[in-house]
Design a protein that fits this description.
It is a multi-pass membrane protein. This protein is mainly alpha-helical and about 350 residues long. Helix content is about 80%, strand content about 5%. The chain has 15 helices and 2 strands. It has helices at about 5-40, 45, 50-80, 90-120, 125, 130-150, 150-155, 180-215, 225-260, 270-285, 290, 295-300, 305-315, 320-335, 335-345; strands at about 160-165, 170-175. The chain has a two-stranded antiparallel sheet with strand order 1-2. The termini are far apart.
Length: about 350
């Protein structure tokens, strides 16, 4: 066997190992963390916060990525099992749904960044934009807009035959080679990575500027307002960590998509295809961290988030504690009622 063939086999083995090792790990992270996100962001202390509503909605789309997109991609990458390779309808809908869900999840975090900027503004008219009503409208508009922007995939994506990393001709679900594939790569880079990341950083810096302007007045505000301000600062810390994770996780895969689009018309050797396949598998797996690590980032950076998480754990460990406590309280109150009534009569 030639050295070239040995290197190709090593690259293909490394690509499969990356997917086999990282995908189950990512799935476990996401399955546990996202379910806790849903439970925590629906708690009374966070339910009425517009920023929490954005977090909750983003979590719902990330659940689709983890429980639907990730297993399907895993089977297709490792075992070459994917009905989208043989059914045109599934090919179009599957690709459209996977790309849309990822992008909507990132844009909802961008909306959360904008909400923190609105909420921290000195202008009362701008502060009014931070409300549950505006958040609900924004979530609906973002979901519909991203869906429309990716609807072209339903039209143009189809099953085509390509040379895989082993040099065999196999069917795959992709767009036509040429200008369209380059446009899709740019579209994905801008919508999924660059534009959300830029807006997240922009709103983040503007929010920090507003906080610096408010800092001198903190000592003069009532205690209730200080508690609310502390909650806002914790939500902002949670948001900043999520923003940096999204940038780090999504940018490499977007650049890889752009590279493959520009070189799709080139004649490539089997070795180069194997090298590109390994790079694609690594960057593709990294993107899942943008959707599976939010719970752990929020737990590390948000005190209020940790407190709500501990309350849920305590309730799971002692489900009858609150019932017993309330029963004892009622039992102690009931005898007092007649005596007070009797005293009043006398």
């Amino acid at each position: 066997m030639s050295s070239n063939s040995i290197e190709i086999n090593q690259l293909n083995h490394a690509a499969s190992t990356v997917v086999i090792a990282e995908t189950p790990f990512n799935f476990a992270l996401g399955a546990i963390g996202l379910i806790f996100n849903v439970l925590i962001f629906t708690r009374p202390s966070l339910r009425n916060e517009p920023c929490s509503l954005y977090f909750f909605s983003s979590t719902c789309f990330s659940l689709f990525v983890v429980f639907v997109s990730m297993p399907v991609r895993f089977l297709a990458s490792v075992y070459n099992i994917d009905t989208a390779y043989y059914n045109r309808g599934i090919c179009k809908i599957e690709t459209f749904a996977f790309y849309s869900a990822r992008t909507i999840s990132c844009w909802l975090i961008t909306c959360a960044c904008a909400d923190r900027f609105f909420h921290s503004s000195l202008n009362a008219n701008i502060r009014r934009l931070s409300s549950l009503k505006i958040a609900k409208w924004a979530i609906g508009i973002i979901s519909v807009t991203i869906t429309i922007l990716y609807s072209h995939m339903i039209v143009y994506y189809d099953i085509i035959n390509v040379s895989d990393r082993f040099g065999n001709i196999t069917p795959t679900c992709n767009g036509p080679v040429g200008i369209y594939r380059s446009i899709v790569a740019f579209w994905f880079l801008i919508l999924y990575s660059l534009c959300p990341s830029f807006l997240m950083l922009l709103f983040g810096f503007l929010t920090l500027n507003n906080i610096r302007r408010h800092r001198r007045a903190v000592s003069n505000v009532p205690r209730t307002n200080q508690i609310l301000r502390r909650t806002d600062n914790q939500l902002l810390r949670m948001l900043i960590t999520q923003v940096f994770m999204i940038i780090i996780a999504t940018l490499p895969f977007s650049i890889y998509q752009l590279y493959t689009a520009f070189t799709s018309s080139f004649t490539k050797s089997t070795l180069r295809i194997a090298q590109e396949n390994l790079a694609g598998r690594i960057t593709g797996v990294i993107t899942y961290f943008a959707h599976t690590t939010s719970f752990y980032l929020y737990t590390l950076t948000g005190t209020i988030f940790r407190k709500e998480f501990l309350k849920i754990i305590q309730r799971c460990r002692h489900p009858t504690r609150n019932i017993v406590h309330s029963t004892q309280t009622n039992t102690q109150i009931m005898p007092i009622m007649p005596s007070n009534r009797k005293t009043t009569t006398i």
